[in-house]
Amino acid sequence: MSEEIFNDLTITPIKTLSGQGHKRAVREMAYSEKHKVLVSCGFDFDVIVWNPYLQTSIMTLVGHEHPLVGVNCLPNLDCFITADSKGMVKLWNILDYSCI
């Protein structure tokens, strides 16, 4: 499955990310300005880290046991946060993609 990034104003796709993507719908995406990566999460329990300049995924992170409801890259830090529908929150190291 491929993911499309839309322009909020015109609601037209501006980029398509392909490769090993999500198997179900994407719920949220976050961009790390510091590390130049895009992180997506969705209903398939996986977190996928993308290189938006090459349109390919870097890594698929597993560890949640329920659908994900959010992801946020923390500015100026080397980590990001994911949360699932049962309330589990995980902090991930963006340098080696390990769960902190």
Description:
This protein has no helices and nine strands. The N and C termini lie far apart (about 30 Å). The protein has strands spanning about 5, 15, 25-30, 35-40, 45-50, 55-60, 70-75, 80-85, 90-95. The strands form three sheets. It has a four-stranded antiparallel sheet with strand order 3-4-5-6, with no helix packed on it. Strands 7-8-9 form a three-stranded antiparallel sheet, with no helix packed on it. It has a two-stranded antiparallel ribbon with strand order 1-2. The chain is globular. A hairpin with a 4-residue loop joins strand 4 (about 35-40) and strand 5. It has one domain (about 5-95). With about 100 residues, the chain is mainly β.
Q: Name the shape in a single word.
A: globular
Q: Which runs of at least 5 residues are low in confidence (pLDDT < 50)? A: none
Structural class by secondary-structure content: mainly beta
Strand content: over 45%
What are its keywords?
100 residues, three-stranded antiparallel beta sheet
Brief summary:
This protein is mainly β.
Topology:
Elements (H helix, E strand, L loop, with lengths): L2 E4 L6 E5 L8 E7 L4 E6 L4 E5 L4 E6 L6 E6 L5 E6 L4 E5 L7
Antiparallel strand pairs: 1-2, 3-4, 4-5, 5-6, 7-8, 8-9
